[in-house]
Amino acid sequence: MYYDNILLFTDLDGTLLNKKTFEFKAALNLVKNCIRKGINIIPNSSKTDLELDEICEDLGIPKVYISENGSCIHGLNYLSEALNKEVCLSRSKQIIYKKFLDNVDINLRQKCFILENETLKNQKDILGLPKNKIHKALNRKFSFPFIFEGDAKEEVELKKNVKKYGLNIQFGGRVLSLGDKVSKGNAMKKFVSLLSKETKRNYVSICVGDNENDFDMLDKCDYPCLVKNGPLKKINFKNECIFSTQEAPNGWVEVVNKTLNKIEEIKKR
Q1: Is the CB of residue 68 less than 8 Å from the CB of residue 142?
Q2: Is the CB of residue 147 less than 8 Å from the CB of residue 171?
Q3: Taking phi first (over 0 means left), then psi (-120 to 50 degrees means alpha), and beta for anything else, what does residue 139 get?
Q4: What are the E-state strand segments in the chain?
Q5: Do residues 176 and 168 make contact, with C-beta atoms less than 8 angstroms apart?
Q6: What is the tens place of the pLDDT at every residue in 174-226?
Q7: Which residue in 2, 53, 26, 10 sits closest to 206, CA to CA?
Q8: CB–CB of 242/234 below 8 Å?
Q9: Which residues, including other chains, have CB under 8 Å from residue 42's CB and lie 6 or more apart?
Q10: What spatial distance separates the first Cα and last Cα of the chain, rounded to whole Å?
Q11: What is the pTM (predicted TM-score) of this model?
């Protein structure tokens, strides 16, 4: 069965990539099968465009993705030539950082340690990446990964502070990330809207994630999928969610297969 109206949006770390080793070999056969069936796989991640370019090459998929937690859509022109190569939904990191410095309480700011200002050793230890991948991970246009060394109460206060001034703090796997008021879910909806308007087609959205950073995306799609990452929490989304029993990458294979089987059963009715 051919599924060229399906858009499969997926988080990466802890979802498609193993959270400790970043390995994804067990998912490659399914990725290839999805491509053969006409399914577009679109990474929707906190990662940078340089990281996502590399991952798309490794997966053997077109460079169509959403970077930095919903900040920018890349590669829509691959799906329809009339669409732009990039659609940025965020202001620049320079504007974001200035608003952060000018408005957020200094006592909270002093407990934020921006990763790009840390030593290479600290960057490697915090991100769990080898030296040759650090540059790509920190080459950001719209966001600042950071470590917060305050307590839980202060973290809540920090998030309130930045929200008040039109900014946002999201959790991206290993670190917090300061960015604009964007989200994976809103970027996913914008992606589908732009493509639908141009192609005059209706698309079915599958979204796969593993933690709270993905919940907004999962709640706004047709078929939400949650990959196990530690203790599994039952979350209520607008549509029924499929939960994996395994962690990534096997968990990704599990929920995507279940979802495609579910869609196939519906089509047969």
Answers
A1: yes
A2: no
A3: beta
A4: 6-10, 40-43, 65-67, 72-74, 86-88, 112-114, 144-148, 167-171, 176-180, 204-209, 223-226, 242-243
A5: no
A6: 799 999 999 999 999 999 999 999 999 999 999 999 998 899 999 999 999 99
A7: 10
A8: no
A9: 7, 8, 9, 10, 64, 65, 66, 191
A10: 14
A11: 0.95
